[in-house]
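*** Query protein ***
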Amino acid sequence: MLSINTNVGAMIALQNLGAVNRELSEVTRRISTGLKISSVKDDPATWVIAQGQRAEMKSLNAVTGSLQRGQSIVDVAISGGETISDLLSQMKEKMLAASDPSLNASDRAAISADYVALRKQIDLTASNAAFNGVSLISSGSSGNVRALANAAATDSINVDHVDLSTTGGLLSGTLADLTTVTAADLTNLDNALKGVNGAVAKLGTGSKALDTHANFISKLQDTLEASIGRLVDADLAKESARFQALQVKQQLAIQALSIANQQPNLILQLFRN
């Protein structure tokens, strides 16, 4: 039926044109943002998952920062511990030299002065081997490392404090000077050196653990980022092809609407002589 009041063909063409325009607008958004899901309206379930993973990634930034601070503290302590080990080796040399019974008093006093200076240097090193105010080898028992290991803060990588000063348990048995030297004194110093080396080795183990976990967290963040991308990123090759096809459909829909709008004019032909 031909009617000038109701143009069914035009309504159908207009509906199709509207649908194509909406789809074209969606594809344009995906191309411009690079995301197939940029809003919760696009896919609520996937958006929630992606947001959760983004929050996890941001939390891992704090974990990385904590691990890096721990690495710096431990590495500074290791440098101090290695220096103290070297100082103890020099002290052992001085002690062995002072044990020579053929030395006169002035020679022994000179060697003792060097020994005392080295011993003081140990305390100076232990008290200054700190990062951001935290030292793992200073006098006392404060300054432990408790680095975050996960985003939930339920695990940590721990590196404990060890006193490498001359008042600590490892070095308190060493002589204050070399006025008199016995075989037992040499043994005590040798034990102190072994103890310091063992403590520095433990610090090295802690540093390696922090390094390894920091590398893992970095890889975990990369994996999470890739996983989020698979969920929300648009395939621009497909979107480009779709964009071209929709442009053609849009032109065809416009042409169909134009044809449908011309149909009422055919009624005039019925009234011509």
Residues 8-34+235-270 form one domain. The chain is about 70% helix and 5% strand. The chain has a mean pLDDT of 91.
